[in-house]
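Record filed below.
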Amino acid sequence: MIEFLLKKQNSDGGWPYGNGGSWTEPTVYAVRALLAAGETAPAKRGIDWILRTARPDGGWASRPGVGESSWVTALATLIPEEYLGEQTSRRTIEWLVGTRGEDTTAVYTLRERLLGRPASADCAHPGWPWTRGAAAWVAPTAAALIALEREQRLRPSAQNVGQIAGRAAAGRNFLLAHMCREGGWNHGATNAWGYDMAPYPETTGMALLALRGVRAPQMERALAAARRSLSTRSADGQNWLRLGLSAHGQLPANCRPPEEVAYRTVTEVALNEIVNRGGLS
């Protein structure tokens, strides 16, 4: 699978999802997989691409040519700091701390009250959106939490440690509040059209990884839902479920994806390599 990633690298140093131009998400995962495999030369070319595509506001767009930073900013922090640089890492964290779902801002809350509608309960525990100005969702919130948790481990005595800790606590509460009744997570809606929504394997795994070390009564339901989902034939689902369960020490021994699972895209292949080589830390 490493050979697949090497062949898929574009001439600019980045990676596509399948074919075509380079995107931030697959490039980050490919870099992490190659670093874990000891393929430092192509990994550094990918890191150079990431550094070149950083935006002035401290974030990253989904790909070059897109005019705004987005949730993939959190993924950039997965690049080891010795390659990304301390200053770049700090600016990235500042962007994440300053971003929240539009449905949890004071302006949105005031507008809803003026319209006679109750404010969202998420206002007290804001999550993260895919892009600024949009509502908060599970996956970007999980990605941001993974980034903030890593920052807290790297710089436990940083000047803004209290602000980071508070923002991370709010994000964790957002995830716990958006858990499906049967455990696990979907993209964000726990109830729609009058019935309970089911969880998805990939978002369940992402949320569990983001909630590493959290002890809450509902966590056992989430872990049980993740274990039940290990039969999924989704490559993304398999990757994130194994990462999430491993973070809690709950991945069954000798767990292997079903033979029918096919790893086709750069993100699927790279994340599978990351799982098999020790996970994200």
Summary: The CA atoms of residues 28 and 76 lie 6 Å apart.
